[in-house]
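Hi P.,

Sorry for the delay on this. The queue was packed all week, but I finally got your sequence through. Input first:
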Amino acid sequence: MVGQGLIAHVRKENDESWVPPHTLTEHITGTARLAESFAEKFGSGTWGRVIGLAHDAGKGRLVWQQYLCAKSGYYDEEAHLENKHGKMPHAIHGAELTEQLFGKEFGRIMAYCIAGHHAGLPDWSSAEGAGQTSLQFQKGQVKDINAIERQFVDTIRQAKPASPPRRFSRGLDLSLWIRMLFSCLVDADFLDTEQYMDSDKTRNRGDYCSISELLERFNMYSKKLDNKAEDTKVNRIRRDIRNKCVRMAKEKQGVFSLSVPTGGGKTLSSLAFALEHANIYNLKRVIYVIPYTSIIEQNANVFRDVLGEDQVVEHHSSLDVDDITPQSRLASENWDAPIIVTTSVQFFESLFAAKSSRCRKLHNIVGSVIVLDEAQLVPVDFLTPILETMQLLVDHYQVSFVLSTATQPAFKERMVDGQFFKGLKDVKEIMGSESEVTALYQSLIRNRIQFPSDMQSVSTWEEIAEELGQYEQVLCVVSDRKSCRELHKLMPVGTYHLSALMCGQHRSEIIEEIKDKLRKKQSVRVISTQLVEAGVDLDFPAVYRALAGLDSIAQAAGRCNREGKRDMGQVIVFNSPRKVPNGILRKAADTTRGMVLANDMDITGYESFERYFAELYWKANSLDKEKIMTLLNPSENDPKECSIYFRTAANKFKFIDDGQQKTIFVRYGKGGEYIDLLRSKGPDRWLLRKLQRYTVNVYDNEFSELTRRGAIEEIFPQVFATSSNLSYSEEIGLLIDEDLYDPEKYMI
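Then the structure:
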């Protein structure tokens, strides 16, 4: 054995000489201390401590120590990453030990966390296809549990928790608690390992302002904003909305709705509520959950202007580089900043994830205000597990939610056609009573929405292009990117194109050009997918929208006469020559068409949205299409075995099927420079954050075609980038053979 005691980790200094090893005692006690402090936030500190002590007990075997320190004196820096090919397992030994020490009732809960702290939370058995990764199979392979050093066994035995923090309800309650414990363990393990492997990273963590300091900065910014703002009707209404948010922040924690028409200043008003509410209830962070990266870029910049450049963390990369190297694994985000801006995909998929890197941050959701911006865009196919998880976070993890949107979805629990819809309980509207909200919406009417006189008639792209060409300033929003490119080709030279085939940096620059031309009253025409609908602050005198869900139409209308500087803007809805993409999007459009044909109410008024969403949810094939509720509920499987299918649920809970998509870095702007750095230096947190601005997602068939043409290359294992500038257009983004498009697929 090298040095004194058993060893947890080893590393070289400057890739040359070995430094003194990280002892196993140091590591498990350091991890246990951190995990206990994290889990204490939700009344589970003793559970966090014991899984911290047991997680690496499997390294306390002579055979593992010999594996780490071979007879030649060579050390393996990656030996502890057991999910790397060819590495000797150790996690399952700690998992099996806790079951032997504490029995199935307590030990099985710990076993899920400990067995998965490198490879990810396992399924209980192979019934759902987990095979040799299942906890049941792994447990059966442990033959040398008695070989663990007695000192570790005794320490773990003495740390036994008295009981769980509460009696768990049926549904997702138990699985969410286990995932939260897992998060505490994973983050504690990462942080303690990081302190040894890369102490510079440790020193750079946690240098943020407190919520009270951020609130003070916000209040100073608001005063300056009010002093320099024009005294217009819209600005007076926005100020009233913000002031009401501040007053309502005193209400007790729970679920809040913020129903404000587009252009009403929801971004700053919701931040005012969140900071004030967090300050009153001693909450640690504000998390903004936003549907599209195009809005994230805009809102994060606003927050940086208000609160400071270094106080906001954006986390929305679709690149999954955990376990590529020890360094990249340690660089994964744990949301330790006071202001987090992330996507709906990142947030909700993490709540149902199995991978350690995705779950690491979850314990930092505890004690936070979570603002769901454009809440109506939560996918209907997963609505049941999402709403139940949100309610559990409110009930047991000191979370407050704000559902912020102009088109408030029907998330409240209710009876629908004689059946109970288990939604969110006790939702409090920040803007007041229904009559007060209705009056607010009426006060901010700035345009008229015109539907086709014949809801069955279809316009050709040539007809739409001719109409659009008659305007000097006009925005047209369509429902898919093929339609966007087809219509754009028919428009006059200089017409702008916006879609997700353009990287975030590209879109941001184009949007700024558009805004500048609008301010200068210059000619500007834009063809876009719906990425401009939610939160992008554009102000056109006229907007065209292909028929879609009522919420999408209302959001598109929010880009028309946004500042109220014209008497009334014009919004034209038309029937596109291409059908609305299949699935929930087509059902949304059909619901809108039915409401227009019924003609029994003002369907553009605030009162219509609850009816629209209730009808849409009723039309959905399922609000839990992948049976997530069953997979994560032990009472639905084998309660005696605490049978939970974490990995299968994680694989099925995908907003976008990433099994059919690839992320590509593109050489636009500084993207090429960053790609070259990634190739030479490998993944690092700061570099990956920079590269988030230069990514495009494509489907597998498109990826294959790009590969065949030599348009992309693998610059790191499973990391791909365009091989030259020729595959990316500064007008329309990534160039893909148009024949590859499937019009039934939906990607904005």
